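Let's practice the habit of predicting before peeking. Look at the sequence and jot down your guess about where helices and strands might fall. Then scroll down.
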Amino acid sequence: MKQNMLTAIRLTIVCIVFFIGIYSLLILGAAQFAPGKGKGETVTINNRVVGWKLLGQKFTDDKYFQSRPSAVDYNAAGAGGSNKGPSNPDYLKQVQERIDSFLVHNPAVKKADIPSDLVTASGAGLDPDISPEGAKVQVSRIAAVRKIPVEKINALVEKSIEAPLAGLFGTKKVNVLQLNIELDKLK
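Done guessing? Here is the structure:
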């Protein structure tokens, strides 16, 4: 028993040194080769950081495309889903409130035409992307508010669609921050 105890203690010390020290330094070193040097890829306009490319942000003004809802109010320090299942009454109430709010801001849209990603939060609650359908369903509202032809905004959405990785992994998506930045450039 004493022999097993000493072996376990030695293994614990080796694991602590490796995983807290060496592994952390390896990851930090690898991060230095990533965009943003491991601090996240920021989006800058006129030397001012306006957001992060890979983090969802809240857009509430009707002149902007709205992001996917967040279960953590877009707080990257507390990423996480709601842990409520699709039959949970509180969850269903929350989704219905999101649907009602969306319909108030987009009166030309029918309830059946609202893509699910605009009323359900992602697993981490920080998804920066929406589906192309989620962007297209908001075009008429934005065109009316900004007084820009629908065709021009539709073309911007089409240009902003990112294909799946290698054409195989994932789905088509639109980064909301990038789309809103391009939208602000339209006159």
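How did you do? The chain is about 45% helix and 10% strand.
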